[in-house]
Task: structure prediction
Amino acid sequence: MASAAITSTSCYSTPLTIVSWNIAEAAPSFTAPSFSRRAKEAPRLIRECILRNQPPPDIIALQESPFPSFGTDIFEEQGYVSVGGTTLSHCGYVDLMLKKQLAEQSRPILLDSNLSSVACRIVLPNKTTISVSSSHLAPFKHGASTRFRQCQHLRESLLQESDNMILLGDYNMRQSEDTSIENILGIDAWKAAGSNYRSKFTWDSFANKYHEDGFSFRARFDRCYVGGENIRVNRFGLIGNKVVEGGSTKDFLSDHYGMVIGLDVDKAS
Result:
């Protein structure tokens, strides 16, 4: 299969499309009609859901991959390369994948293993340098102080490579943490894109009965932050928020919905 082409660019601005998704270890939902069939089909369904976006993403950030090579196994033929190395989080692996042409202009950023993150530095076609990370931060409400420290260290590590930063992933955040984390990491992409209520919640267990038990609630666990004067957010949406074709009305590919973010990165002066 032909490699994915880099989104068209000018010497002044490079558009980027990015997907970030906690894929719940590609495990079948409680409401899947056939556990064994879904387990077999999940990698293909996840790939198709991510690549259905137009244009296809330039960067794919995965959380809760079931094993280190999962992303490579399902996206390599489509022209994506895993960069920065995968790392184990409290649940599954964290991965960061780039289109091959971008990967050739990238290098890993070394991070402390306690950050449950992978990151890389990329030189874009317009010669602007950016730092990008995929993260699966500490879980639960009582993990707020740990998440705060993780975000501080992430910012410090990425800033060593570029002032222009894109930080993605399952941050497990609660709304009460918004201000403190924005003060560290920068602009919240969902808010910058207009705070559309329809794309606010990446967890909705009223509609999504992925798990057999548990109470119903909505949350914005998954986040994208951008920092630096050269990056502008132009759109924010969700993927994986539709039921699986042929499944029940509560059957989804993951307990999380994925984020799709559109950015414009201006040429650095």
